[in-house]
Request: fold
Amino acid sequence: MTLMETTPDAGTPAATTGSASAPGNGWIRVCRVDDLLVERGAAALLGDRQVALFRTFDGRIFATDQIDPFSGAAVLSRGIVGDRGGVPTVASPMYKQVFDLRTGTCLDTQGKDPLTVAVHPVAVAEGDVFVKLEGDPR
Reply:
C-alpha cells in the first residue's frame, strides 16, 4: 500500500497517494482532504475523543487533541493557525498560548507553567484523512 503519513515530528506534506486502500490497524478515517480549509481548524469526534485537524498553507495536515490544556475547553480547532519561524502553529482562542502543531509543545505560555497538547499521526490515502489516536486525553 502506498500511504503518505505525517507523523508529528516529520512535518511531511500530506498528499493523495496511489490506488491503495485505507490504512489499517488503529487508523480512523476522519474526512476528505478537500473538507479541510487551508489555515483553518476543524473538530472531529473519534469515539469519545475530540481532535482538532489543521491544514497549513503548504498542504500539511496535523492533528491535536481539541482540549486546550490551559483552560480545559474544547476549542483548539477554533484557534489561529500560523507559522513561527517555519514551525506550524495554532494559537488557542482562550488565553492565546501558541502550540507547535508537530510536537504539541507550547511556544508561548503567556506567563503560565508550560503545558503540551497531545498530537496524533495523520495519514492521507486516496484523498482521505486518517488519524491514529495515541495516549489518554486527560
